[in-house]
UniProtKB/TrEMBL annotation:
Chain ranges of the SET domain: 461-589
PANTHER family hit by this protein: HISTONE-LYSINE N-METHYLTRANSFERASE SET-23, HISTONE-LYSINE N-METHYLTRANSFERASE SUV39H
Compositional bias ranges of the Acidic residues kind: 171-184
Record's compositionally biased regions (Basic and acidic residues): 11-21
Keyword Transferase applies: yes
Protein name listed in UniProt: SET domain-containing protein
Length: 638
């Protein structure tokens, strides 16, 4: 942990608005901090006129939040008893001094543990998935809760839908009892919604320019105030650490004074946080960058933004009062499914079916598989994964030279290794059937932005799941997509093919793109033939319908499991530019079918890997009437 340099402490305070001097002598020089994370100048404020200490000069304080900064230092968000700024705020950030108040510190930790346990037990708005990058999406404590929940779920599988409805009813009942008119009622517990609002995923369009989110956890107290209606009183001084990225926590209010400063005596700072500092020997930077790239939203504008699920109704006295609303199933589902990437919405202009029919146990997972009993999951591969040495190998300037790709068959005629993606992260269509794209693995030293980690990124395409006229529900993009855009992967339950054949699910996808005819009568299934079924576990891609002239193709990717074990991920990439609003489709014939555009296709041709949709009417012919509507529709799909 960097310490304050003497040099900075003894600096002439009249020029102390240059607060970056605080860390100027240590390793964390400004150059090492990514541009978007650099700390802006931090003005100071004075406590000279502060009142409210007890007879011993001690102040009452509460820890109400915790944040980790760019350098992994933990900062505690503290609210000071009766003291307040003129604007009503009373928060500051503290780090090492907090150790001198073990009682407060321990009570805060206990509070966190309690909340974490509650989330672990009750939280239904998030579910675990084997390869989900929770640390980039959620708070540290939620990550912990997530792992504990995983253990819990192994012991007690949850009937998700039933539990959600039960919780909905409980929330409703509780809300009516306590008459809290600022609450939302939904399948998402209040505390979790509050946390969600303060720990948006990286891809959240609200904060597009933040390169590294800080992991944060907030107490009930702050979480509640930050939920729907934030008041000026919840405004806090931003974290004073260099490189800390702005988070939605902070009020958009301007600092009270750009020249004011907060001071601590050496005794008070080292001995006890309890004592509110009142003389001027040590300076603590407080106000920091207030979302420099985002114009602050005025209280007025904020007030005008209706919170979801809440309506404002005029009361008899003329004032507006919030009325509780139950979120519709469509809104609840949309909230749940949008947690791991860009928004997913639902629309039906055809009939009155509100949401697609999902089984009562349906579980949404954006990435990865859930492995059926007896199938080795990704954890068991970890020790055998390849790894490359990092940015000097697969960084943008040397794309295509990554050791991981070196093990694949992606090379040009001269033997030069080719990367499956270009610098913009677009699929290059240079993969032949039967070749898995090997993205960098969890053991690689490269960053999440490595150009060879495209399928691992958060989904950034907003999608709409909509009712088609004659093919059930489908999915369309809400934004235009360039050719090569990687959309995501097909997720679900990974099971042995022999078992999948008995299941007769319309959502089963075979993973044997490279082993043709392996499920035909001529060639018996092996132990290594797998399928993925998204009947009860899956993501948006389970709604992709077949087209004889599709706009996406399927290719295989591995990154956290061993190559050639027959369990790759099935990724979707746009085969052409796709305008906003167009339905996303692929060829059910299977992996890389579109790459083999010259392959003659006949209804009598045996299935050669890829998706299989079984209909009882077909008596095993595996073909069904196609209603894709494409000009070159073959009239059936397999
Ligand atoms: C994986 S699901 C696709 C999503 C599905 N439409 C739904 O509502 O859940 C596959 C099913 O969609 C329908 N389907 C997909 N593509 C079709 C097509 N081109 N023509 C007719 N039906 C299609 C068939 O009922 C098929 O069994």
């Amino acid at each position: 942990m960097p310490s304050k340099s003497k040099k900075s402490k003894t600096k002439d305070r009249s020029s102390k608005s240059k607060v970056d001097t605080t860390y100027e002598d240590d390793d964390w020089s400004a150059e090492t901090i990514p541009a978007g994370c650099r700390r802006s100048e931090s003005p100071f404020e004075s406590f000279d006129d502060a009142e409210g200490a007890d007879e011993y000069g001690h102040w009452q304080l509460d820890i109400v939040g915790e944040e980790i900064d760019y350098y992994n230092r933990i900062w505690y968000e503290v609210e000071w008893g009766t003291w307040k700024r003129k604007d009503g705020t009373n928060g500051t950030w503290k780090n090492e001094y907090i150790g001198s108040r073990p009682d407060i510190f321990n009570s805060w930790k206990r509070q966190q543990a309690t909340q974490r346990r509650r989330e672990m037990k009750e939280g239904l708005s998030y579910e675990f998935s084997t390869s989900l990058d929770i640390h980039n999406n959620d708070t540290r404590l939620r990550a912990q809760a997530f792992e504990e929940k995983l253990e819990e779920r192994k012991k007690n599988p949850l009937n998700w839908e039933e539990a959600r409805l039960k919780q909905l009813a409980e929330e409703e009942e509780r809300g009516l009892e306590d008459g809290d008119d600022e609450e939302l009622v939904s399948g998402v517990p209040r505390k979790l919604r509050a946390l969600k609002s303060r720990s948006q995923p990286r891809s959240s369009s609200a904060w597009p320019s933040q390169p590294t989110p800080t992991h944060r956890f907030v107490s009930d107290k702050v979480a509640s105030s930050s939920s729907v209606a934030r008041t000026p009183a919840s405004s806090l001084t931003p974290l004073p650490s260099a490189g800390s990225c702005p988070t939605p926590l902070f009020s958009s209010q301007e600092p009270t004074s750009s020249t004011s400063r907060m001071t601590l005596t050496p005794e008070s700072s080292q001995a006890s946080l309890h004592s509110m500092p009142l003389d001027g020997t040590q300076e603590i930077p407080v106000f920091d960058n207030l979302h420099p790239r985002q114009p602050p939203m005025s209280e007025k504008a904020r007030g005008k933004r209706p919170a979801r699920g809440v309506v404002s109704t005029p009361s008899s006295s003329g004032s507006h009062k919030r009325r509780r609303l139950v979120l519709s199933p469509r809104e609840v589902l949309s909230d749940e499914w949008s947690r791991f990437g860009a928004p997913i919405t639902f629309r039906n202009d055809v009939d009155d079916e509100e949401i697609p029919p999902l089984g009562p146990n349906f579980r949404y997972i954006e990435r990865g598989y859930v492995y059926d009993d007896g199938i080795p999951g990704v954890d068991e591969c970890r020790d055998f994964l390849l790894s490359c040495s990092g940015h000097d190998v697969c960084g943008p300037s040397r794309i295509g030279n990554c050791d991981c790709q070196g093990e694949s068959h992606l090379d040009d005629k001269t033997g030069r290794v080719l990367c499956a993606y270009n610098k913009k992260g677009l699929f290059r269509f240079n993969v032949l059937r039967g070749v898995e794209v090997k993205e960098c693995t969890p053991l690689c030293k490269c960053s999440p932005d490595c150009p060879n980690r495209v399928l691992q990124r958060d989904r950034d395409i907003p999608l709409e799941i909509f009712k088609t006229l004659d093919r059930g529900w489908g999915v369309r993009t809400k934004e235009k997509l360039p050719r090569g855009k990687v959309l995501g992967m097909y997720t679900g339950l990974l099971l042995r093919r022999a078992k999948a054949l008995k299941v007769h699910s319309a959502y089963c996808f075979d993973l044997d793109g490279q082993e043709s005819l392996s499920d035909s009568e001529d060639e018996p299934l092996t132990e290594d033939s797998y399928s993925v079924d998204s009947q009860d576990i899956g993501n948006w891609s389970r709604f992709m319908n077949h087209s004889c002239d599709p706009n996406t193709l399927v290719y295989e990717v591995v990154y956290d499991q061993m190559p050639s074990t027959g369990m790759p991920y099935l990724a979707f990439a746009a085969v052409r530019d796709i305008p906003a609003g167009e339905e996303l489709t692929f060829n059910y014939k299977g992996v890389n079918a579109e790459l083999e555009a010259n392959t003659p296709i006949s209804p009598k041709k045996k299935k050669s890997g890829g998706r299989k949709v079984v209909s009882s009417d077909d008596e095993g012919s595996f073909s069904r009437e196609c209603r894709c509507g494409a000009a070159k529709c073959r009239g059936y799909y397999v």
